[in-house]
Amino acid sequence: MDIRFLTMIISVFQMKQIELISFDAEGTVVTPDFSQAIWHEAIPALYAQKQGIDFAQAKRHIVEEYGRIGDQRLEWYDIEYWFSYLGLGSSELVIHSCLGKIAYYPEVTEVLSSLASEYKLIVASGTPLELLHLLLRDVKPYFVRIFSSVSHYRQLKSPDFYLSICEEMGVEPSQVTHVGDNWQFDFLNARQAGVNALYLDRSGRNHQEYLSDLTQLKHVLPPPI
Ligand SMILES: [Mg+2]
Prior knowledge:
By secondary structure, the protein is α/β, with parallel strands linked by helices. 47% of the residues lie in helices and 10% in strands. The chain has a five-stranded parallel beta sheet, sandwiched between helices. The chain starts with a helix and ends in a 5-residue tail after the last helix. The structure holds magnesium ion (MG).
């Protein structure tokens, strides 16, 4: 991070004390391994078996279908929609077969454990609750609430979603910091709601002004109330 960014962050945070830190889940706290295994391996493998075609062909078809819906529509996130649309039956066994892939980024436990003693922590994710609870199973105790935009509000992570969370938690948007790895859903939309949004770019490329991992949160947050 360069000094201009730090100065900007500090001036933003000085306006009001931060009470709540909100985290995106996938790509921020949880690695993409589980999602990769479900969406790009297990689902195409089951589809190949059901259709009697080879895996590569099934994967091509399914990736094309994912692209047709796209991440701006709710169906994209809804595993039950995909199982029904692709004629795959129940999702339970497939989800179960991928549980071993759930993993957290290396700094996550230490950062959450340290911040949880000073702030209220929540999750604000676009992942449906049935998957989100599984993804967060080892870090759940650090969070006071877990919000899924899709399951709780039937919407994407829009500015309204962030406003609803603030209302539910009884805080002003300016008392909330949200961190996440999606420029639109975590940064622009949270900022539009008046939340102090921090963009996480784990690639660390080209973006000196963004967080490259969660340990940097400690440096940009003001002392707690
Ligand atoms: Mg994410």
